[in-house]
Amino acid sequence: MPTTQHILVIRLSAMGDVAMTVPVLRAFTQQHPKVKLTVLTRPFFAPFFKDLPNTSVFIFDDKQKHKGIFGLFKLYKELQQKKITHIADLHNVLRSKILRFFFRFFFRFSNKKIAAIDKGRVEKKALTKADNKVFKQLKSSHQRYADVFTKIGFSVDISNPEKRATPKASKMVSELLKNSSSKKIGIAPFAAYQAKMYPLDLTKKVISEIAKTSTVYLFGGGKKEIETLSTIENEIENCISVAGKIQFEDELNLISQLDCMVAMDSGNAHL
């Protein structure tokens, strides 16, 4: 029986939800410095957890190695070698449920050592139904994540989060900041759904006004967004699009250096 407490943390997607685990895990590592964490997630999200002490990332490959039921069993066998003692499932989807089953059935985990997030669907449905809404304060996603750790025996206090120190600018980011003005503003004007976006023509007016006194950095992804932001960059002085030009880790680093980040209801908002 392993003596080191080692928690497998599962959160496979989506970007915003994965990003919101970070402050909870940071609080956990501060309050339980001797406990080891392994985060099971997609490769793209690995930079989120780079600076967390005593935390490693295990890559979930749903395209090839871990695809399907047999791939999930292979994943279980790989994770078993890590001497996991507890599982905190912060996702609670079919894949993570199957993985939990493998651990319980083959590894003889007790129920107290495995817990999954309660997404609060019943109370959310009660709040958003058309008639007779139940107006009750719901838990934040952060608190729901923290509750999972409490269920497996590790309480996490997230009431007084510690501000993250600004990391040193990377070489790429230093180049981007080199000729910027005193104020540096990031703007991510897109979202997955148009209803979550401020109209693009009005956003361009906002960017134009801000760029008169500050350097504006534009964030986005995907061919269409990159082309649109490139057009805005060419039309408005003191405006720099980083979409498609830098790696994701450098994007995170750049956001950390900015005075302000403006985003729609999107992954960038959670970052």
Number of strands: 9
Give me the number of helical elements.
11
H/E element string?
A: EHHEEHEHEHHHEHEHEHEH
Q: pLDDT below 50 for ≥5 consecutive residues: which ranges?
A: none
User: How would a crystallographer describe the biggest sheet?
Assistant: 5 strands, parallel
Mass-distribution shape:
globular
Helix content: 25-40%
Taken as a percent bin, the fraction of beta residues is 5-15%
- How are the strands of the largest sheet arranged? 3-2-1-4-5
Mean pLDDT: 94
Would you tell me the structural class of the helices and strands?
A: alpha/beta
Q: What is the gyration radius calculated from CA atoms? A: 21 Å
Distance between the termini: 38 Å
Structure write-up:
- The protein has 271 residues and is of the alpha/beta class.
- Helices cover 39% and strands 14% of the residues.
- It is built from eleven helices and nine strands.
- It has helices spanning 15-19, 21-31, 68-80, 94-107, 121-128, 141-151, 171-177, 200-210, 223-235, 248-257, 267-270; strands spanning 6-10, 36-41, 55-59, 86-89, 114-116, 184-188, 215-218, 239-241, 260-263.
- The strands form two sheets. It has a five-stranded parallel β-sheet, sandwiched between helices.
- The radius of gyration is 21 Å and the shape is globular.
- 28% of the residues are buried.
Keywords summarizing the entry:
271 residues; alpha/beta; five-stranded parallel sheet; globular; 39% helix
Topology:
Layout: E1 6-10, H1 15-19, H2 21-31, E2 36-41, E3 55-59, H3 68-80, E4 86-89, H4 94-107, E5 114-116, H5 121-128, H6 141-151, H7 171-177, E6 184-188, H8 200-210, E7 215-218, H9 223-235, E8 239-241, H10 248-257, E9 260-263, H11 267-270
Parallel strand pairs: 1-2, 1-4, 2-3, 4-5, 6-7, 6-9, 7-8
Helix pairs in contact: 3-4
